[in-house]
Amino acid sequence: MKDVKVLGPGCKRCDAAVQMVQDAAARAGVPVTVSKVTDYAAIASYGIAATPGIVVDGRVVHAGGLPKPGDLARWLAG
Hints:
single chain; 78 residues; alpha+beta; 4-stranded mixed beta sheet; 40% helix; globular
């Protein structure tokens, strides 16, 4: 099971990123747990300055703007 964290203050793009991760995981048949991290100190601890950020199994894979669906599939498969 993949552990995915979406980093952001709770804006619409952050919510959209959560949905995109869930949709990509469902399409790929990859079981995931998705959590939202909204605490600014926790977000900063990942070293990103732009949100939404996406962390897969402890590794930052994206920061700033919405990810491309193809990228999501690749990150979840890896």
